Amino acid sequence: MRMLYDGYQAMEDMLAPARFGAQMALAMRDHMGPVADWPMPRRMFALMDVFQGARMTHKRPAYGIDRVQTGNAEVEVREEIVLDLPFGDLLHFVKDDVETAQPKVLVVAPMSGHFATLLRSTVATLLQDHDVYITDWKNARDVPMEAGRFGFDEYVDYVIQFLQDIGPGAHLVSVCQPCVPALAAVALMSGDEDAATPKSMTLMGGPIDPRAAPTVVNELANEKPIEWFEENLISTVPFRYAGRGREVYPGFLQLSAFMSMNMERHGSQHRELYQLLADGKTIEADKIKTFYQEYFAVLDMTKEFYLETVDMVFQRMLLAKGELTVHGRAVNPGAIRKTALLTVEGEKDDVCAVGQTSAAHGLCTGLRPHLKRHHLQPGVGHYGVFSGSKWEKQVYPQVRNMILAMN
Q1: Distance, CA of 98 to CA of 71 (rounded, Å)
Q2: In 3D, which of 132, 114, 135 has the Cα closest to residue 123?
Q3: Residue 299 CA to chain centroid, in angstroms?
Q4: What is the DSSP letter of 61?
Q5: Could you read off the pLDDT of 61-117 as tens digits, one per residue?
Q6: Higher confidence at residue 123 or residue 112?
Q7: How far is it, in rounded angstroms, from Cα 243 to Cα 146?
Q8: Distance between CA atoms of residues 296 and 119, nearest Å
């Protein structure tokens, strides 16, 4: 399967002229005057629009957070790369016009086939009351081989280094897959009595102990031995990219797996998109287009990070069993004594079901009861834990209160 990437690239190259043609035709629409709004041209342009947009991209979309309401004022937001490392940046959402210092928060984003912009809504909400940073992961196919390896241990290293760069007094919010390495990072920092150990740690919808409530995701990860994943899902980055020769788990494979779990819904969404465009309902259509522009932006993971995550987190569940090590050093969550813990789960989460994240409380034996909180959010699935109206109105207040209590 090492040549899988070449096959995907050949298909993309083959479709490129047709996509370019559709793009050029859509560009002509604005010059056709009233004719463009006739039923037949509108249907034709709708078809081209759907075809041109139904494709994967491999560049990080913009966060697009330019302004945010904080207190009684609306302030400007600008992005600043604080630390530029080979596989990810520490990105700071700076608010220059905030007079009173706000709690610093590091958002630890998933590295699971999409860019950190998937947490745009999470960041925008946190920015109301906090000074926010995020782990802005890079596409592995764009990272030269000279940068070396990036596996589970290196992920933990990056979280620690980012926290140290932010400095003492910060808080950590981790979403989904990185809850395990984030907890490991805090445990190691606590054991070292590192001054940059975060004051609080919020784990949201993460697989701390998949045994607590196995889902389809967990079952798929355990259907085959780890050797099968390496033989069938790992490919080599083509020569045209900066990461040429690097072995990766391609983002297009991960997206294909996600979509195959609910093809009927995705097909229905694109049929609805076509109809909305054909009917001239551009505002409603833009909502669907915006979602898929983000969803189709994929990120390749290094071979070592993907395989080690499947093996260590989902198959052997080392953290839950007390057997996890980082660079040969044992990870002891019991060493966490001063970092308050908040876990958040969604009632209908079919990725990390109820019980998987709250298992962190049983591991953090060194924390006194008043430093532990759990929030179960009724009526939401996996994404509803960190985005959408219930995140903003019901989950976020829990996160804000925990940070405020420990600041």
Answers
A1: 9
A2: 132
A3: 10
A4: P
A5: 999 999 999 888 899 999 999 999 999 999 999 998 887 899 999 999 999 888 999
A6: 123
A7: 9
A8: 15
Place of tokens 């309902």: 281
Please tell me the distance from the alpha carbon of residue 303 to that of residue 229, in angstroms, as a whole number: 10
User: Would the pLDDT of 43 be above 90?
Assistant: no
Residue 174 token pair = 């981790």
Burial class (CB in 10 A: 0-12, 13-18, 19+), 86: middle
- If one counts every other C-beta atom within 10 angstroms of the C-beta of residue 148, the result is 11
* Interatomic CA distance for residues 127 and 113, integer angstroms: 25
Query: How deeply is 185 buried, as exposed, middle or buried, from its count of CB atoms within 10 A (0-12, 13-18, 19+)?
Result: buried
Strand partners, 240: none
Does 154 or 56 have the greater pLDDT score? 154
pTM beyond 0.85, yes or no: yes
Q: How far apart are CA 356 and CA 345, in angstroms?
A: 8
Ramachandran region, residue 390 (left: φ > 0; alpha: ψ -120 to 50; beta: rest): alpha
Write 242-245 long-range contacts (CB < 8 A, 24+).
242/141, 242/142, 242/143, 242/144, 243/140, 243/141, 243/142, 243/143, 243/144, 243/145, 243/300, 244/145, 245/145
Tokens 């993971």 sit at which residue?
301
The packing angle between helices 39-53 and 4-28, to 10°, is 150
Task: Tell me the average pLDDT across 351-365.
Answer: 96
